[in-house]
Amino acid sequence: MRQRIRIPKSLKWIWLMILHAVFIAGIVFLFHSKWHLFRPVSELPPGYKPQLVRLALHSLETRDVPVASLLIYRGEIIGRGYNTVVRNRRAGEHAEINAISDALDSLGFRQFQTLDRDSLWLITTFEPCMMCAAALVIYNIQKVYFIKEKPISDNLRQDARLLRHFWKREALQPAALQDSLFYLHPDYPEHLKKPKTP
Ligand SMILES: [Zn+2]
Question: 141-157: per-residue pLDDT in tens?
Fold first, then answer.
């Protein structure tokens, strides 16, 4: 007679939690790096190709990775960017961020913030890295087109590093130090300032 193996209840819970974590990680990964595979592929409008190539070639002059980006508003180019990390020794000067900076430079920060986000989009030759994706989120640039996607190994490495970042970061006291700096800003709302302790 065969005996049924009884799995302890605690082990069942652990299994359920592992399955849950794998499921959530899969969803996060899908959205982070592969969701575009479920969308139709558009052709690069022919007018943008020479501009992108010309910009990317500038990167090569200083052995920067040849990536170029254009920021478009209502069909008009308002920002151009190419990789200048090596050229200028600036950590954040990827093509996408440079295109945003170029638009901020020509329009001014306040006017840039008022642009209709439904008519603002970025086109880039290489899938944005995590830093550039974060810049696009922060500046509320919602529509992005990229020509070449990143290898899956790059995305996995970035995901792992992001998790490690959240795992390793620690808070420092006193938190009020930053508040006191915020209060110095002329646009900081008065009603949000906490009363000073006597
Ligand atoms: Zn980047």
Answer: 999 999 999 998 888 88
* Ligand 1 centroid distance, CA of 95 (Å): 7
Q: Catalytic site residues?
A: 96
CA angle 48–52–56, rounded 5-degree value: 175
The torsion of the CA quartet 13, 15, 21, 24, rounded to 10 degrees, works out to -100
CA of 44 to the centre of ligand 1 (A): 20
Average pLDDT over residues 159-174: 93
- pLDDT value at residue 107: 97
Contact between 81 and 56 under an 8 Å Cβ cutoff? The reply is no
- CA 96 to ligand 1 centroid distance, Å: 6
Residue 197 above 60 pLDDT? no
Check if the beta carbon of residue 93 is closer than 8 Å to that of residue 65. no
Give me the sheet containing 143-148, strands edge to edge: 76-82, 68-73, 120-126, 143-148
Angstrom CA distances, 89 to 85, 93, 94, stand at 5, 8, 11
132 C-alpha to center of ligand 1: Å? 4
